[in-house]
């Protein structure tokens, strides 16, 4: 009798079902990853080979010439630098204000604590597009349009809710006894936190920062709306604009796409485990 | 107390750049404004009434709902299937999961730009491939309202599958083995196990996952904007892209504000109603 549970499969007895599943999974993964494969493969092909018919799946000759060319045709280096500036700046600003806030919500009892938590949750529900014109006007009044600072601030603001949620959860995993012990030993609260708690927060903090970084790197709407000059554009908007203008050259688009997403894909893979634990820790009981 | 001080920077920035704009937008929806959005006079429900009789509003609203239902439905089903498959232990499980996540790690705007190229009628990858296999006049995917809608839907689904898959996978892994074993003793087959054990146990996960997905999908701006910009001729506009156009292209800030407020209310109502499912214990 086939004892097929969807949780685990008994290795020895039910080889057929398991093989089928693995086969099915493999097929689905191939289909799912096909676009990425095409992009990667095309970007590594020489120009002649790309347009050849019949088209080849794997490059006959691996070449990095496209990657060189994109930097000549697009101001890609500039876009890349801008993305870095915005993502770093935004992340730093974000954790500078969310670490203290998360500490407060995690450790301290204060009036309105529940209200603050609910508010942060509600804020997630709000699409930025709804208030984008109002923010535009505000930035204009503050003179922050078309500037790194303006975009850094907005990006930091819109990731506050998420960061506070994550950091609060991480803070709560650290036993309060450690701080209390440190304070008994003569530290004030600030020292207790910086010397004892923050180091333990390391992985959680790193994951939160990485997530914020990735979010800002991939951000499109604000960069599209608040920035006018090409020199300030990050990768997302820069590539979007240039594809329209410079026509459609496969070898360039694919190479540019890979270059643009490479850093965050790598970063994402690194923090993937942390992120999933953080995301699903609340949703799954036990 | 100390807490307030620690929260001050965060709350201040949120107040300036989020709460104030929200109030501003709501106020605008009840007002007559000038062309850049400054409030001139009180208008009561005029803007809302105007929207109710505007056929374009209903078209866009219906389309947004259709978009959301289809996209979330597909992401949920496909994600769940992947989760079931990935839950099986075999040697390459870790690798399979890492590969599965890759679409999620890619940047949405860049992916959208890529797919826009794919769908391009003259130079794009899709039509090029079709021509290769002998179809001489492949369609103008993005020039026809229906195919454009589904073209963009496909991209949104592709990007969103990993999130649902991972959420479900985490849920599946929390299911105790004994439940299945006990039911085996009672003679259950795999369909019965799926329906009567797996689904009920992961219900909280399912609800939260789909709720988040609905909120994000309903408001998804980059994918549509980059691939079709709401075209051809506004036929793939959903609420958020239409709002953006009202603000920055048509110079109708009051209308944008009214639409925005309505969008928010719709999602708020949805969240409250949906959350009831979550808290309703069997």
The percentage of residues in β strands of chain A lies in under 5%
Number of helices of chain A: 13
Which structural class do the helices and strands of chain B define?
A: mainly alpha
> How many beta-strand runs of chain B?
2
Number of helical stretches of at least 4 residues of chain B: 13
Low-confidence stretches of chain A: 1-7, 282-286
State the strand order across the main sheet of chain B. 1-2
Query: Which percent range fits the helix content of chain A?
Result: over 70%
The arrangement of helices and strands of chain B along the chain is HEEHHHHHHHHHHHH
What is the CA-based Rg of chain B, rounded? 23 Å
Query: Taking all residues together, what is the mean pLDDT of chain B?
Result: 85
How far is the first residue's CA from the last residue's CA of chain B?
A: 43 Å
Give the overall shape of chain B, derived from the CA principal axes: globular
Series of secondary-structure elements of chain A, N-terminal to C-terminal: HHHHHHHHHHHHH
Explain this structure:
- The complex is a heterodimer of chains A (286) and B (282).
- Chain A has 286 residues and is an all-alpha fold.
- Chain A has helices spanning 15-43, 47-50, 65-73, 76-107, 113-124, 128-142, 148-158, 160-172, 176-184, 189-217, 221-226, 235-245, 250-283.
- The longest helix of chain A is centred in the last third of the chain and has 34 residues, at 250-283.
- Chain A is globular and about 75 Å long.
- The two termini of chain A are 32 Å apart.
- The model of chain A is unreliable at 1-7 and 282-286 (pLDDT under 50).
- By secondary structure, chain B is mainly α.
- In chain B, helix 3 packs parallel to helix 7 (145-173) and helix 12 packs antiparallel against helix 13.
- Chain B has helices at residues 2-29, 46-52, 55-86, 93-105, 108-119, 125-132, 145-173, 177-185, 190-201, 203-218, 222-227, 239-248, 253-279; strands at residues 31-33, 39-42.
- Chain B has a two-stranded antiparallel ribbon.
- Chain B is built from 13 helices and 2 strands, in the order H-E-E-H-H-H-H-H-H-H-H-H-H-H-H.
- The longest helix of chain B has 32 residues, at 55-86.
- The chains are: A mainly alpha (286), B mainly alpha (282).
- Chains A and B meet through helix 1, helix 4, helix 5, helix 6 and helix 7 of A and helix 1, helix 3, helix 4, helix 5 and helix 6 of B.
